[in-house]
Design goal:
Strand order of the largest sheet: 1-4-2-3
Distance between the termini: 30 Å
Order of helices and strands: EEEHHE
Strand content: 15-25%
Number of strands: 4
Structural class: alpha+beta
Shape: globular
Radius of gyration: 12 Å
Bound molecules: zinc ion
Helix content: 10-25%
């Protein structure tokens, strides 16, 4: 199931089967983690993810591996994609 990509933040589970990987993600997208417990949201540097998981890591596998920097929660965390303004 695909959605238009014109919204600011897009839950990755809406594109759960498209096979997207970090290296295929256009550079004007930013990774945003959302905590399933305290709702904290924070930007993630994709290079840090690549250092740990490799550029071929599936975007869908990143969210469940995240740990909240605020409360330390590891469950129910989601990876969102944000679009940077292009000018
Ligand atoms: Zn949290």
């Amino acid at each position: 199931m695909r959605h238009r990509r014109s919204i600011d933040l897009m839950p990755r589970e809406d594109a759960a089967d498209d096979g997207a990987t970090l290296e295929l993600l256009p550079e004007w997208y930013v990774l945003v983690a959302k905590c399933g417990k305290c709702r904290h949201q924070g930007r993630i540097d994709r290079r840090l993810v690549a250092n740990r998981r490799g550029w071929g890591v599936s975007l869908n596998s990143i969210g469940p591996a995240l740990k909240c920097v605020r409360c330390g929660n590891r469950e129910g965390n989601k990876l969102l994609l944000g679009r940077l303004p292009r000018d």
